[in-house]
Design brief:
Strand order of the largest sheet: 4-3-2-1-5
Low-confidence stretches: none
Largest sheet: 5 strands, antiparallel
CATH class: Mainly Beta
Strand content: 25-35%
Structural class: alpha+beta
Order of helices and strands: EEEEEHH
CATH topology: SH3 type barrels
CATH superfamily: Kinase associated protein B domain
Helix content: 25-40%
Number of domains: 1
Number of strands: 5
Number of helices: 2
Distance between the termini: 40 Å
Radius of gyration: 15 Å
Length: 125
């Protein structure tokens, strides 16, 4: 059972995070982000992998200690050790880059990889 103070895995948009439940808000939990499991996909959430006639968003991972309202249905208990935020962010970013490198070349792949390269500079200097 998830209660205030529980460490959880939380899916938010196209990312996945480890966090701590701070409040219960009806159908949502307010979750403080502690680590990144999966970096968000780049581009338009409503038109995945599309580049034409859409606004191609740069999607950042939620920041360390950022709080997000996350639907209860997207939250589950997390019972493993919580990794360091910066290390987890770097691992998640590199996993997404590797996944994109393994896909056939496409305009989406090129734009997404460019966004991730820019984010990597921004995140880590």
């Amino acid at each position: 059972m998830i209660t205030i103070g529980s460490v959880v895995k939380a899916r938010y948009k196209t990312g996945s995070y480890i966090g701590k439940v701070k409040e219960e808000r009806g159908k949502f939990f307010l979750v403080e982000i502690l680590a990144v499991l999966k970096h968000p996909q780049q581009g338009d959430l409503h038109n995945p992998k599309q580049t034409e006639d859409v606004f191609f968003h740069e999607r950042r991972a939620l920041a360390h200690h950022e709080k997000a309202n996350i639907q209860k249905t997207a939250v589950s208990l997390y019972e493993e050790d919580v990794p360091d935020y910066s290390d987890s962010l770097q691992t998640a970013l590199e996993q997404l880059q590797q996944t994109l490198h393994n896909e056939p070349a496409s305009p989406y792949q090129q734009l997404a990889l460019a966004n991730l390269a820019s984010l990597k500079k921004d995140y880590f200097g």
